[in-house]
Design goal:
Layout lengths: L2 H9 L2 E6 L2 E9 L2 E5 L11 E4 L4 E5 L4 E8 L2 E8 L4 E7 L7 E11 L5 E10 L6 E10 L5 E3 L6 E6 L4 E8 L2 E9 L8 E4 L1 E6 L2 E6 L6 E6 L5 E2 L38 E6 L6 E8 L2 E8 L5 E3 L7 E8 L2 E8 L3 E7 L17 E4 L12 E5 L2 E6 L7 E6 L16 H7 L2 E6 L9 H5 L5 H18 L7 E6 L1 H12 L5 E5 L5 H11 L2 H9 L7 H4 L3 H4 L7 E7 L7 H13 L4 E6 L8 H19 L3
Parallel strand pairs: 31-32, 31-33, 33-34, 34-35, 35-36
Antiparallel strand pairs: 1-2, 2-3, 3-4, 5-6, 6-7, 7-8, 9-10, 10-11, 11-12, 13-14, 14-15, 15-16, 17-18, 18-19, 19-20, 21-22, 22-23, 23-24, 25-26, 26-27, 27-28, 29-30, 30-32
């Protein structure tokens, strides 16, 4: 199995828990079978445990570490718990009668019941059996041995939390390109107002919630009181050891961003994710991104003091599960491969006999480290931050990689399904560029290129090419590689620097006006989002920047390859086809490679095909041996 296939397959596995020897994982073996695998002591694998996927819903209940299936039969709900050791336990409860016909289950989340056990909050709709129409949502709280509680929400949104202690439910109202709006709606008093906040929901218990506010420009962790709606940022009380917040330091050009300047450090990096850890709401496990690498911290929510946890070489850390016994993370890095980490409720590992206090249990994933490679160096090329990957031998060419978004950032992860590894071993230096407009470096940095992307990216690209020239790599031995919006910038780069070898753009946005119109047709709020960032109204193609007329003013000898899935629902395959046809009419050596995928590959075969097409295209652009 190739690395892209191996990596794609591993990413489909769900981290559930931890036993002596490593992680407990689950994946769909087929459409009707969920397979649970776990290591055994002494290296002898346990026999996988299969769960039949039946009923109306299947949920992994983290509090009880079991899969729970739900089956509706009229006004009766049958619930079955499938423990990770293969044992089963079932119970049933009566639901209130559906006024118009029958209940249809839309969603289910885990809760803590008033009795202290696990409960479940169901979102159901009342379907008219004859008309086939449905009323609005009804929320039902069920727990073993307890009566059903019913609530018809006033607020708009998807249920994300039911808090019996605060007598409130939280609904998330998605708002297209903008931050979600969270509504904490009281259950006990209809006269009590709904309290709201903007932000991304992370976790909730006992009347408190962890939310991520001010994203993506300067994401900050906040404690949200579900009773009165007050917000408190625990990092505001942080001591000197935590360093300043992300807006308190400056880059080489005076721009705001974490990680530079006196007193700054990884504890001041933007928050990526967080969960309550331990028995109450006094501590949180927080993942912050600092200089392109994620780090885990144990945060005292009262004092703001942050204790770093031992997660070396993890690259990117994805917080996958949080149970009463601890939390599990999935790590992925270009140089270090993939890994699983387990952190106990107090930052120590209690499930691993003999582990030192404060240790983080670690087990390798399917992608091994590459001992010939060294981790990337976070540096500034002029005033533009970047991750630079050095090849193990002589440098013969360079690739400037441009992330999508644009409001995202480069991390040391297995970008492009491990393609960086192959390039490095072929003598190609890789620069993961956090171009102006990326997140993670403060709101001013993120907003600076709006409506003038060409000026901002010209400065980024010139700085990068100057740094490469100082390393002995000329522009004609340098290619641009980008995906989604990064693909758009790769095409723009060939307009700005005609001496580049060329570009490979995967699923690029190639016509900003058409892209904005399609997005607005789905959600009118995209009109304001696009208008704020791009000069859609200008009659000049150059000012619109991402326009076929302007993008095809690239150098006449540059090789440009666009790789695009025919089933892409995010950016348009047809727009890419039109752009390439226009370029070829102008005599430019451009080509289009199509596959059957969406915006990103949907299965292991598509992942391998996309990887191979991009790799071969870069080899052709750079004339690699």
């Amino acid at each position: 199995m190739s690395l892209p296939e191996l990596f794609f397959t591993e990413r489909q596995k769900h981290l559930l828990s931890w036993v002596e020897g490593g992680p407990v994982l689950a994946h769909m073996e087929d459409a009707e079978t969920l397979r649970i695998t776990s290591p055994a002591p002494h290296g002898e694998p346990r026999t996988p445990h299969d769960i039949a996927v039946t009923g109306d819903a299947l949920l992994y209940a983290q509090a009880s570490e079991s899969f729970v299936s739900f089956a509706l039969d009229g006004d009766r709900l049958d619930v079955t718990h499938h423990a990770l050791d293969g044992t089963r336990h079932g119970w049933s409860t009566a639901l209130p009668t559906a006024p118009r016909g029958r209940w249809a289950l839309q969603d289910v989340i885990e809760t803590r019941s008033a009795t202290g056990g696990t409960g479940f909050a169901l979102t159901v709709v009342d379907e008219d059996e004859e008309e086939g129409e449905a009323e609005g949502d009804t929320l039902l709280l069920v727990a073993e041995g307890a009566g059903t509680v019913s609530h018809r929400p006033r607020a708009i949104g998807t249920l994300v939390h039911w808090d019996e202690g605060a007598a409130a439910v939280v609904l998330r109202e998605d708002r297209g390109p903008f931050q979600p709006l969270l509504h904490a709606e009281p259950l006990d008093d209809p006269a009590r107002p709904v309290v709201t906040t903007e932000g991304r929901w992370l976790d909730g218990r006992d009347g408190e919630a962890l939310v991520l506010t001010d994203a993506p420009g300067a994401p900050r962790l906040a404690l949200w009181n579900l009773r009165d709606g007050s917000l408190r940022h625990p990092d505001a009380e942080a001591g000197p050891e935590a360093g300043p917040g992300p807006e308190a330091v400056s880059g080489p050009d005076g721009s705001s961003g974490p990680g530079v300047g006196p007193g700054s450090g990884a504890a001041s990096g933007p928050v990526d994710d967080a969960r309550f850890i331990g028995a109450g709401t006094s501590s949180a496990l927080v993942v912050r991104t600092y200089e392109g690498t994620d780090r885990a911290w144990l945060l005292d929510l009262a004092s703001g003091a942050a204790e770093p946890l031992d997660t070396p070489g993890a690259g990117r850390l994805l917080l996958r599960v949080a149970t009463p016994r601890g939390a599990g993370l999935y790590g992925l890095s270009t140089t270090e491969g993939t890994s699983y980490r387990w952190i106990g409720p107090d930052g120590a590992v209690e499930c691993a006999p003999g582990a030192p206090d404060g240790a983080v249990e670690c087990a390798p994933g399917a992608v091994p480290p590459d001992p010939a490679l060294t981790p990337p160096a976070h540096t500034y090329l002029g005033s533009t931050p970047a991750l630079v990957y050095e090849p193990p031998g002589e440098t013969t060419a360079a690739v400037i990689a441009l992330h999508g978004g644009p409001e995202s950032q480069e991390r040391d992860e297995l970008r492009w399904d491990g393609l960086y590894r192959e390039l490095l071993h072929r003598g190609v230096l890789v620069v993961g560029l956090d171009y102006t407009g990326s997140s993670g470096y403060g709101d001013a940095f993120l907003r600076r290129p709006w409506k003038d992307w060409e000026t901002a990216f010209r400065r980024d690209l010139d700085a990068c090419l100057t740094a490469l020239r100082d390393r002995g790599v000329t522009a004609d031995r340098t290619a641009l590689l980008g995906g989604s919006f990064g693909g758009s910038l790769a095409l723009l780069g060939c307009v700005l620097a005609e001496d580049l070898a060329g570009a490979v753009a995967a699923a690029p946005l190639t016509d900003i006006r058409r892209q904005a119109a399609r997005a607005a047709a789905d959600d009118a709020r995209y009109t304001a989002w696009f208008s704020e960032r791009y000069d859609l109204a200008s009659p000049l193609a150059r000012q619109r920047t991402f326009d076929p007329e302007h993008l095809t003013t690239a150098g006449p000898k540059q090789r440009v390859v666009i790789v695009h899935g025919e089933n892409d629902r995010v950016t348009s395959f047809e727009d890419s086809s039109t752009l390439v046809a226009r370029a070829r009419e102008l005599g430019l050596p451009w080509s289009l490679t199509a596959d059957a995928s969406g915006h990103v590959p949907d299965d292991a075969d598509e992942a391998r095909f996309r990887h191979d097409q991009v790799r071969d295209a870069l080899a052709a652009v750079l004339d690699l041996p």
